Amino acid sequence: MIPLLSKYILRTEAATAVEYGLIVAGIALGLVVAIFFLGDTIMDLFYDDLPGLVSTP
Q1: Predicted pLDDT at 39
Q2: Which value, in Å, is the radius of gyration of the alpha carbons in the chain?
Q3: Closest CA relative to residue 9, chosen from 1, 20, 51
Q4: Residue ranges covered by each domain of the chain
Q5: Rounded Cα distance, 28 and 23, in Å
Q6: Which has the least CB within 10 A, 31, 44, 45, 53?
Q7: What percentage of the chain has pLDDT greater than the value 90?
Q8: What distance in Å separates the CA atoms of residue 57 and residue 1, rounded to the nearest whole number?
Q9: DSSP-derived secondary structure letter, 1
Q10: pLDDT tens digit string along 24-50?
């Protein structure tokens, strides 16, 4: 029983998956925060400023 338990404890594949999951969660959180704070600025750029820059023939 002890060798089986020690073999289970020494496995690191799940730890790597958890680390990648935390990295993805951090990136997603950063994107949400950036969109939240820059959303109005980006919306103003596309809906207010951009039509004046594009001329129609």
Answers
A1: 85
A2: 24
A3: 1
A4: 2-53
A5: 9
A6: 53
A7: 26
A8: 80
A9: -
A10: 999 999 999 998 998 888 887 777 766
